[in-house]
Amino acid sequence: MSANEIPDGVKNNVWPDVPQGERLAGSTKFRKVFFKVANDDDIRLINPRLFVETPTPGDDRVLIFPGTQTDAQGDLTGSERQYGSGWLDANVSIGATSIAVNVESAADAIFADGDLIRISDKDGVDDATGNVEFVRLAATGGVTWNGDKATLTFAAGQSLQSGYAATNTRVGSVIEAANVEAAWDNWSGSTVAGTYDGSAPTTPPSTTVPLMDSIGSIEQTWTITFSDANNFTCVGDTVGDVGGGSIVGGDFSPNNPDFDRPYFTLPSIGWGGTWANGETITFRTHPAAIPVWWKRIVPAGANSLSADKVVVAITGESA
User: pLDDT tens digits, the chain, 319 residues: what are they?
Assistant: First the structure.
């Protein structure tokens, strides 16, 4: 994940223009975008939901699917479950238990049994007026296809809380991500008599633990190596040397220069026992971010459209 923030609502913020030759030949391109919870109070995002709020008005189409913190385009297999949106086929009334949705290509399979779907007739994702709701599809028989039209049947007990007109209602499948907060794991190490949080590094700490920072923490494996009984250096697997500290020198908080915030903080109160030259502790940190792949498909012979755009959005809660 880079440190570059993508500006919202700006032309070419994710995708470049499509030149004539590419429109004639067709193309499929990918971008990996991270939705970062850069909260200064380290508050986690609960029950995040990601979706294509509005499909493109052009001949192209944009789909999304979950990524990992470290996967690259070369790791994609082509079998990834894809999510997207389409348009309501016909007006529906409050209380309806199924709807029909027109999509750009049934081959994308953007709806599946058991999906959570989002239905909205708002002019924009943040508009105060209009209706929006999330509905669960039936686990069996929730989706049937007739050409590029999907009939979506809701799970038992689910029904629409509002009526919707086909002229302005979008229906999208939803990525339901895990709660988002910076975290650490994979704690290990090697020592004869040193401890942290009262235990050898073969046991992860449970009371005095590494403290994460929602803004500064990144995906990284950290190795702390002692040079004597008190002093150590810290190296990340991709960022390299981030300085050193001492078990008697206060909390260790290596600085992330991209944000002027700590990558993590290792409280000094956790150190114990007797450490020696060459002994180590290793652990991995994870950022407060959701990695999502975007896939843009430009069919051969696509028409030019200067105002082409797609709206991808996220919603969630905090406590």
Answer: 888 899 888 999 999 999 999 999 999 999 999 999 999 999 999 999 999 999 999 999 999 999 999 999 999 999 999 999 999 999 999 999 999 999 999 999 999 999 999 999 999 888 999 999 999 999 999 999 999 999 999 999 999 999 999 999 999 999 999 999 999 999 999 999 999 999 999 999 999 999 999 999 999 999 999 999 999 999 999 999 999 999 999 999 999 999 999 999 999 999 999 999 999 999 999 999 999 999 999 999 999 988 899 999 999 999 7
The C-alpha atoms of residue 67 and residue 54 are separated, in whole angstroms, by 21
Query: Cα(first)–Cα(last) distance of the chain, in Å?
Result: 26
Q: What CA–CA distance (Å, rounded) separates 198 from 270?
A: 7
Residue 61's Cβ-side half-sphere holds a number of Cα atoms within 13 Å equal to 17
Query: Letter for the amino acid at 238?
Result: T
Q: Taking the CA of residue 65 as centre, how many other CA atoms within 13 Å lie in the half-sphere pointing to its CB?
A: 17
Determine the Cα–Cα distance for residues 238 and 220; give it in Å rounded to an integer. Answer: 7
**291 has which bridge partners?**
34
Report the alpha-carbon angle 146-312-31, nearest 5. Answer: 95
Residue 169 · residue 133 · CB < 8 Å: no
Answer left, alpha or beta for residue 38, where phi above 0 means left and psi between -120 and 50 means alpha.
beta
Measured distance CA(196)–CA(206) in Å, rounded: 10
User: For tokens 């429109």, what's the residue?
Assistant: 23
In three-state form (DSSP H/G/I as H, E/B as E, the rest C), the secondary structure along 211-258 is ECCCCCCCCEEEEEEECCCCEEEEEECCCEEEEEEECCCCCECCEECC
DSSP, collapsed to helix, strand or coil, labels residue 129 as coil
Q: CA 126, CA 9: separation in Å to the nearest integer?
A: 13
**Closest to 169 in 3D by CA, of 216, 99, 64:** 99
The closest of 178, 141, 201 to 316, measured between CA atoms, is: 178
Domain boundaries along the sequence of the chain: 20-36+46-178+289-317, 183-286
